[in-house]
Amino acid sequence: MADDVLFEFLHMEIVAHVYKEHATREDIDKERVTCVSTLELMGFRVGQGLIERFTKDCPTFKDDLDVMKFLCKDFWSTIFRKQIDNLRTNHQGTYVLQDNKFALLTQLSSGKQYLEEAPKYLAFSCGLIRGALSNLGLESVVTAEVSLMPSCKFQVVIQKL
Amino acid sequence: MIERMTVHNLYIFDRNGSCLHYSEWNRKKQAGISKEEEFKLMYGMLFSIRSFISKMSPLDMKDGFLAFQTSRYKLHYYETPTGIKLVLNTDLGVPNCRDTLQQIYSTLYVEYIVRNPLCVLGESLQSDLFSSKLDSFIRALPFFSVRAA
């Protein structure tokens, strides 16, 4: 049971540390953007590594949808101990992954409190998704939105070259 | 005679004496002093009683201070290894609450405060999630009845 919290506490500290490092700047918006991209880049590298590890015994994926399904099921459950609850797509490269009880947000609130702070705790996970996809050959842009905690949506737009 | 049992209020203090949380459910009479003074009074009393008990105990101390009771209410106390002190005032029908307080600490405080990155340890607890979970927990206790004696 204690194993679950190890990553959570570390993640909490990473976010706090990144924000403290950049706190000297006066421009709040610029500072937020820098912090979010730092966290996202960290997640990117971690995601790349994780996906190599998780797919080392898997056969190649048939298409993009297959990749996304793998992300929603196996990848998500290995990291967050649950699957993505809902996957939607427009079949043209945009996917929306919905997690109704996102593991890193459940302890924050179950409604609107702390809503403005939530994006800080989603940046790393956006990077995770982007890194995982990148190493599977799919360049993407991943953003997250949250309107009612602990449910959140990750939007993935695959970049066609 | 139907035994009515109820919970009056709950205080949570950190190891430095700051009151992190206070809720009341069935308090009929206020202390007549400001909340700040009340918290200081409560903490001071706990501090004194603990030291008194350890000095004057005729036998080796096991758990230390557990509870005290008056003719109208009973005050239950639990202190965690990290110095968090939980105080619960209930009416007399309630048996030893140590387990309840321990549960409040482990399933509510640790879960929703310690694991919440936006709750600064040492400051008063702002999380709505914690307050609502605490409220449901207390109301669900077998010895909590809305009709107070």
UniProtKB/TrEMBL annotation, chain A:
CDD domains recorded for this chain?
A: TRAPPC6A_Trs33
Pfam families in the record: TRAPP
Q: Which UniProt keywords are given for this protein, alphabetically ordered?
A: Endoplasmic reticulum, Golgi apparatus, Neurogenesis
List the GO cellular component terms.
Answer: cis-Golgi network; endoplasmic reticulum; trans-Golgi network; TRAPP complex
The Gene Ontology biological process annotation of the record reads: endoplasmic reticulum to Golgi vesicle-mediated transport; nervous system development
> Origin, by domain of life?
Eukaryota
Q: Which cellular compartments is it found in?
A: Endoplasmic reticulum; Golgi apparatus, cis-Golgi network
Q: What does this protein do?
A: Component of a transport protein particle (TRAPP) complex that may function in specific stages of inter-organelle traffic. Specifically involved in the early development of neural circuitry, likely by controlling the frequency and amplitude of intracellular calcium transients implicated in the regulation of neuron differentiation and survival.
Family stated for the protein in its record: Belongs to the TRAPP small subunits family. BET3 subfamily.
This chain belongs to which protein, by name? Trafficking protein particle complex subunit 6B
Which organism is this protein's natural source? Carassius auratus
Q: Name the gene.
A: LOC113091508
Automatic annotation (TrEMBL), chain B:
Keywords for this protein: Endoplasmic reticulum, ER-Golgi transport, Golgi apparatus, Transport
Quick one: a GO biological-process term for this protein? Answer: endoplasmic reticulum to Golgi vesicle-mediated transport
Task: Give the top-rank taxon of the lineage listed in the UniProt record for this protein.
Answer: Eukaryota
Q: Where in the cell is it found?
A: Endoplasmic reticulum; Golgi apparatus, cis-Golgi network
Coarse class of the protein's main subcellular location: endoplasmic reticulum
What are the GO cellular component annotations?
A: endoplasmic reticulum; Golgi apparatus; TRAPP complex
Quaternary structure, from the entry:
Part of the multisubunit transport protein particle (TRAPP) complex. The heterodimer TRAPPC6B-TRAPPC3 interacts with TRAPPC1 likely providing a core for TRAPP complex formation.
Protein purpose: May play a role in vesicular transport from endoplasmic reticulum to Golgi.
Family in the record: Belongs to the TRAPP small subunits family. BET5 subfamily.
The protein, known as: Trafficking protein particle complex subunit
The species this protein belongs to is Carassius auratus
